[in-house]
TrEMBL record:
Lineage: Bacteria, Bacillati, Actinomycetota, Actinomycetes, Mycobacteriales
Keywords noted in UniProt: Coiled coil
Coiled coil: 3-37
Species name: Mycolicibacterium aromaticivorans JS19b1 = JCM 16368
Superkingdom: Bacteria
Keyword Coiled coil: yes
Protein name (Swiss-Prot/TrEMBL): LuxR family transcriptional regulator
Amino acid sequence: MEESDALEELVRAHSDLERLTDELADARERRRTAAQRLIDGGRGTTWIAAQLGVTKQAVDGFVKYKQRKTHAEK
């Protein structure tokens, strides 16, 4: 692989990572919001966890992320 090919691939990969990072942040926020809506509607974290195939602790973690982040910034 020539240097120009390697540089082109590096730039493409970097661009992909930036795009995917933004998409991931958006998806995490949508997941938090949707889970909170379900909790506000009476569903528990155990039920949500079963729907996602994750642990209750994982749901607790992403639902409470903003609370921890806000508390840490104070």
